[in-house]
Design a protein that fits this description.
Length: 470
């Protein structure tokens, strides 16, 4: 367990509730926001950390709020709204009735009786956003996405799937299949014979198309997965759950999982067209939230880039205490696995010598392809305190940081007509601890020099992911 973050007074604001909902037509801007930037950066963030006078147990349980920075002619507008989830309605009533990621419901043990394999988890959609055709959803790792209006941030309601599939745990990191125009994701179904189900969700329809089913005795906790041109890749870290115990334990989601490093990590590689299991490939134990990219190379190689931790200690570190989080962010490695699909071998190498998280690439043209640039938040002080651009071909990097400033996930936006892989800007919501508020930062993606910043009217709590909507 790592020590409490050394700069607690600085990061504390990022874990402080934001209750105010506001809309501002024009934020104060310093520098110059490119006039070609027209659209909106919409992000979801945990924003409420106390419910009924009780501090929630974990950063991942903060009640979801949307933030929207709109761009037009160099001007920047701002709006923020809570998502109208069951979790938020409960929170307004001072209640936390459902099991969170790591927060217990406030109810007596006698009320815990539930049907087996129907765990009573929260719908709090605070992790990521996705577009399905013309619809937008906010997601967490329970399969109850919530649809919202990307302009007004109004909640439109729970997205109901028009199929009979039963899901218990999923990811908030779906991929996009440009050929089929599908959102691709997986879920785990907990049962006496559990399974992973990989599926595609076409636009304009809410019936999932099953791509593959993989039986699994004890499903692994997987926050994301990989998609190359031909394959879907599940990286099963040995953080596993016994499904039969989930309902009975009454414990919040992640506390049902057990770390068994002696079992190693297994890559399950599935053919995207046929759904057949191409192979299972084993390597040493590690833990990871985020895949960066995956692509085929040569005759039989599959390349898989991800942000690796030695173990899942990061989950423990991110429990909330009054001053911030219980621990600091453990070191990570930007790691490349190369799987020889025919020979069955797995080898790995570090792509850079730097602790990074929250990876992004220029997704649409680069995912599933060989690529050069990935963007991250970096950590030196024990919390995410810089933005880092890494050339994965040689490990060289460019960085941005400023005193007492804590940036969120960097999102690349391509300049129309620019063919260079880094031809555009990188956007990030940064907490300025000294000023006591956040700002939207615009970096030139090529030089990584600051172009502009737009001051938000308040602090925006530390969040996870967002999308640029054109
Ligand atoms: Fe994530």
């Amino acid at each position: 367990m790592t020590d409490t973050i050394s700069l607690q007074t600085d990061v504390r604001l990022g874990f402080t509730s934001l209750e105010e909902e506001t809309a501002v037509d024009r934020l104060p801007v310093s520098g110059e926001v490119p006039a070609w930037l027209t659209g909106a950066l919409v992000r979801v963030t945990p924003a409420l950390f106390e419910v009924g006078g009780r501090r929630l147990a974990h950063w991942f349980d903060g009640v979801a709020m949307l933030n929207r920075f709109g761009f037009a002619d160099g001007r920047v507008s701002y709006r923020n709204r809570f998502l109208d989830s069951v979790a938020h309605r409960d929170a307004k009533a001072g209640e936390w009735r459902h099991r969170g990621f790591a927060t217990d419901p406030c109810r007596s043990i006698f009320k815990r009786v539930q049907s087996l394999f129907s765990p009573d988890f929260t719908d709090n959609p605070n992790v990521n956003l996705a577009r399905i055709g013309e619809r937008y959803i906010a997601m967490t790792e329970t399969p109850m996405p919530i649809e919202f209006d990307p302009e007004t941030l109004d909640t439109l309601g729970r997205l109901h799937y028009h199929d009979t599939l039963k899901a218990h745990a999923t990811t908030a990191h779906p991929h996009h299949d440009p050929k089929r125009e599908e959102l691709v994701n997986y879920f785990a179904r907990f049962s006496r014979v559990s399974e992973y189900v990989l599926y595609g969700l076409p636009p304009g329809d809410s019936a999932r198309r099953v791509i593959a089913r993989l039986p699994v005795k004890e499903p692994a906790y997987m926050h994301a997965f990989g998609m190359s041109g031909r394959h879907l890749i599940l990286a099963e870290y040995p953080l596993r759950v016994n499904p039969a115990r989930v309902a009975l334990s009454g414990k919040p989601f992640i506390e049902n999982y057990r770390w068994r490093p002696e079992e190693g990590t297994r890559f399950q590689v599935i053919d995207r067209e046929t759904g057949a299991l191409r192979g299972t490939y084993e390597t040493d134990a590690f833990f990871c939230f985020h895949h960066v990219n995956a692509f085929e190379r040569g005759e039989s190689e599959l390349v898989l880039d991800l942000v690796a931790y030695e173990d899942p200690g990061v989950i423990d570190a991110l429990y909330l205490v009054s001053e911030g989080t219980k621990g600091s962010l453990p070191p990570t490695e930007l790691r490349r696995y190369v799987i020889d699909l025919d020979a069955g071998t797995v080898r790995s190498e570090a792509l850079a010598d730097r602790t990074v998280e929250l990876p992004r690439i220029d997704y649409a043209p680069r995912n599933a392809s060989d690529y050069a640039y990935a963007y991250f938040t970096g950590s030196g002080s024990g919390w995410l305190d810089s933005l880092v651009k890494i050339d994965v071909r040689d490990g060289t990097r460019r960085e941005w940081s400023a005193p007492d400033c804590y940036p969120g996930e960097p999102i690349f936006v391509r300049r129309p007509g620019d063919e260079a892989e880094d031809g555009g800007v990188v956007l990030s919501v940064v907490l300025d601890a000294t000023a006591g508020r956040s700002f939207l930062l615009v970096l030139d993606a090529g030089s990584f020099e600051e172009l502009a910043r737009a001051d938000a009217p308040h602090h925006i709590p530390f969040g996870f992911h967002g999308q640029y909507l054109r």
